[in-house]
Amino acid sequence: MTTVICPICKGQKFGKFSNRPSAKCLTCGSLERGRVIYMVLVKLGIPRAEDRILHFAPEKCFIDLFTKSHAEKYQAFDLFPERYKNSKTTVRRFDICEDLNSMPSDEWDFILHNHVLEHLFCSVKDVLHGLARILKPEGTMVFTIPIHKRQKTIENLDPFLSEIERKKTFGQKDHVRLFGYDVMYTIKESLGVNCFIPVTSLFEEEEFVKAGIPWQPENEPNGKSIFLYKKSGKF
After folding, report:
1. Per the domain annotation, does 75 fall within a domain?
2. pLDDT at 233 > cutoff 90
3. What InterPro entries does the annotation carry (predicted)?
4. Mutual orientation of helices 60-70 and 32-44 as an angle, nearest 10°?
């Protein structure tokens, strides 16, 4: 039997999360998608030591990691920074829909956002385009989104839609859209390239099993699937 070890913190205790057994590392708090991202970053050697990192809705496991490795080069943003009172770094308030356009272009080497786009009351295309704009030339953006087994994305940006209706329609009370497979075209149209990375292009099944991540390449794209965009020049 394979011993499951978190690749981020080396913890070996896992617990249930959202009806998924052994999904959460009880040491660093990482979920499967966080562990996949970490493994991809290690495999590809990003971010570099000198890189400036911008992180939206930061997970504790990555806050701890990047605060240690990049110190003042790491900046974390969230719409509700009060959630991070015990964080190792200051998480600043930032509304992507309202504040992104005011950020300078070509400023960041690495941008990370994990299951963020489904929460935003604004255009996914505009957000992705804006994030690409603030990346430095040759900078990298990595992100994941929950993709469901349906052809078309549905969304409702009505701010007065009740939490009950949101949960009924999108699965969570704080979601405004449910991504279908057509989001692959949306992302390609927004960024100009296909930035989906199939897990089989980087990993073997054994690596996922050891990290406590279900090996389901036949079900991709899904909520653990990695999108990696590298900016080739001015956006």
Report:
1. yes
2. no
3. Methyltransf_11, SAM-dependent_MTases_sf
4. 30
Structural domain that includes position 86: 48-196+217-230
203 lies in some domain? no
Share of the chain above pLDDT 90, in %: 94
Residue 100 lies in a domain: yes
In a domain, 20, yes or no: no
Q: Coil, strand or helix: which one is 190?
A: helix
Nearest of 61, 70, 59, 68 to residue 116 by alpha carbon: 59
- 53 and 110 in contact (C-beta within 8 Å)? yes
| Alpha carbons 103 and 7: distance in angstroms, whole number | 33
**What's the total number of domains in the chain?**
1
What gap in Å lies between CA 178 and CA 35, rounded to an integer? 23
Angle at 179 between CA 232 and CA 96, to 5 degrees: 60
